Amino acid sequence: MSMEKTERPVMTENKMGVMPVGRLLAGMAIPMMISMLAQAFYNIVDSIFVARISENALTAVSLAFPLQNLMIAVGVGTSVGMNTFVSRSLGAKKYNECNQGANTGIFLALCNFIVFALIGIFLSGPFYAAQTDVAEIIKYGTDYSSICLGLSIGIFCQFCFERLLQATGRTSITMCTQILGAIINIVLDPIFIFEKGEIVFGNFAMPFGFNMDVAGAAVATVIGQVVAACVALIANLKFNPEIKIRLKAIRWNTAIAKEIYRVGLPSIVMQSISSIMTFCMNLILISFSTTATAVLGSYFKLQSFVFMPIFGLNNGMVPIVSYNFGAKKADRVKRVVKLTIVTAVCIMTFGLIIFELFPSTLLSFFSPSQTMLDIGIPALRIIGSHFMLAGFCIIAGSVCQAIGNPLYSLIVSVSRQLLVLIPVAWLLAQTGVLKLVWLSFPIAEVVSLILSSIFLAKTMRSANRIMAEK
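Above: the chain sequence. Below: its structure as tokens.
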């Protein structure tokens, strides 16, 4: 890997190294937060439309979450590693490494697509059969997952190209591509799901439709992803001069791939652990009823309105921290970390209030039965109690990744979701009282808080020593 620093004419320093921290974080994070809210909106609209088919259809989509989350974990994790590598290379003025990182990241995204296409085509059926014996749920779920994974090139390329824009601070463009994909998905959902003339909302009847049921939701999703990916690619080629994408350069580079996954692999494992956690929770909950699993799926859709802005804030923070850490600007690193944590906790406090005061209103979006309401209302209130703690933990973990200590985030994630949440949920399920199972979420988050605080302090001390070296 080339270590030269003067491979192109001298450029004016990127805004991430000179703009006032508050304005910089707002300028980068707010567009990402808006785009993430758009993503959350179309995720929930997807389930709202599917719920109008039947509760089994909603359950099928809910059970797909572990597979989809695994796919997202690999796509996001690879992109996070690439993003961090590119941002740090820019901060250190290593422009050739920056370009190599971008092109290698694109190659890795294409490889990931091939793997998940095969998983979707051949393993969707067995995946559902392992969770339930309800034939309708298996059919709906297999249709949905095989399409979402089999045609996943859009989502992998979208993650990759959007992260390249984020790496150079162009988050407003990323916001536009994500909102575009969300709008396309929302518009196409009823067209592909329902038949002509079927009432969708209020007095609105479909002027035409393909009547594909749950499979239609998957088709709408992948179309939105492909369009967003194409627009993000065009935006990189036209408006991102600091990164040069070249067709001949899109190939395997062992040294860079290793560096990308040094940071990205813990992120992949962390989100993959979430897939394992959700799969295990579904098995625990389905022993009570399929409605309980539908409630968990509905919770994940609803909580995205709270967590997605945090992830957007996170995405705005990571390249700033990575860039200034690479440039050895310690004061800027400290200020952006503190500001991000405070903002995250404030957002999560708002989410906590909504979940505690209006759980029945939130569940009403999914055409719930009375049984679903009886299970879901206490579930949302109990699970929502951990939101403020989660806000701090998410940011702390990302700071560790951005500075180069991804193992800490991995330890926290494994401890929270596998060593605490699942065992506690299983033990509480033995009481036969479903309400107690939901307590596993706040209990696990307390453990996460303790570990995250310790690791963040260690990471910042280590970073300060490195940045003090000249």
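Confidence is low (pLDDT under 50) at residues 1-11.
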